[in-house]
Amino acid sequence: MALYELYAHPVERGYRAGLCSKAALFLLLAAALTYIPPLLVAFRSHGFWLKRSSYEEQPTVRFQHQVLLVALLGSEPGGFLAWSTFPAFNRLQEGHLRVPLVSAREEDRNQDGKMDMLHFKLELPLQSTEQVLGVQLILTFSYQLHRMSTFVMQSMAFLQSSFAVPGSQLHVNGDLRLQQKQPLGYRGLDVRYNVSVINGTSPFASDYDLTRIVAAYQERNVTTILTDPSPIWLVGRAAEAPFVVNAVIRYPVEVISYPFC
């Protein structure tokens, strides 16, 4: 015999507990574990599925007081004057050696413990018949990063300017910028380029050739270059007055690229 449903109503059961009960604490714990760990993972990893990331940092830069100068003269073909802080280089110059007066001062403008710029001045004594048509100048620096990529290297700023008219002063104002051909590692200490840009102990003239120095430097994956130097060439040098190089080099905040693994 078939049965038919004549009447039905749902049965609802409710469970109540205080906020300090074990059930309430378990519910809060389950909710916290559902949302908080994924947020922490996303924050620490700086995003999901990233292969490369970047951050900003002002590097710790210090001028190493190493200088190599070549002044191109217009008095005779192939004429030049040279000087450096490397005695071996100076011995090779013989009659082309001319010792200048050099002063350098680094400035921490915002008092954060990191230098912000270098004020460099070089006065090259000249004879009344000597005229400077161009300047090639290398300054070396110690360059360090600490925030995420622990990186230490010795770098340089290379300045080259030449003009058709003999000058009395050269004024330069630029930034020492970081150049990366590959991201920096973010684990351990990277000191692969913490070697001198110029082999100042070498007795061989080829080791001081500017073409070779610059070429070897450009082989690095991480370098610094002097950008936007805005050279100003002043003319009208008085007799017996020195040729003056004034340079202001700033150490700006950099955007550092590093791999994410």
Automatic annotation (TrEMBL):
Pfam families: TM231. One of its GO terms (cellular component) is ciliary transition zone. Keywords: Cell membrane, Cell projection, Cilium, Cilium biogenesis/degradation, Glycoprotein, Membrane, Transmembrane, Transmembrane helix. The keyword Transmembrane helix applies. The chain crosses the membrane at residues 23-43. It is a multi-pass membrane protein. GO terms for biological process: cilium assembly; regulation of protein localization. Transmembrane component of the tectonic-like complex, a complex localized at the transition zone of primary cilia and acting as a barrier that prevents diffusion of transmembrane proteins between the cilia and plasma membranes. Required for ciliogenesis and sonic hedgehog/SHH signaling. Belongs to the TMEM231 family. Part of the tectonic-like complex (also named B9 complex). Interacts with TMEM107. This is Transmembrane protein 231. It comes from Ovis ammon polii.
